[in-house]
Specification:
alpha/beta, about 20% strand, globular
Length: about 120
Amino acid sequence: MVVWVFAGGGEAEVAGLIPFLEKHFPGCRFERKTPVKMKKGSKPGKQNSYGKTGKSLIKEISERLPIALQYESGKCDLILVFDDLDCRDVIKHKENFLGAISKIPECNDINKFIGFAAPEIEA
């Protein structure tokens, strides 16, 4: 099973989330779609999405998911969105993510799971 992971966070979360998921779900292959790590020599601010959460993560998913679907069609079994809850209403926050994803018709047949760390991923 191939799982595309959309998650915000800083460098520690970027480095730790995928190994954590692989350890606990060994039958899955996890591919992080956000944030994209800056390449060495890149200008500051280019392709750097560390720290995005909430609305800014939703915006980033809305931009990156169609591109991934265009170039990697049929290669995803599950879309996993993982964000800090940051004391937000869990039901409304989940609906916001699912609403943004549902606007992308190419992913209608892909399973989706929205998960939250309360209050923070690093916790």
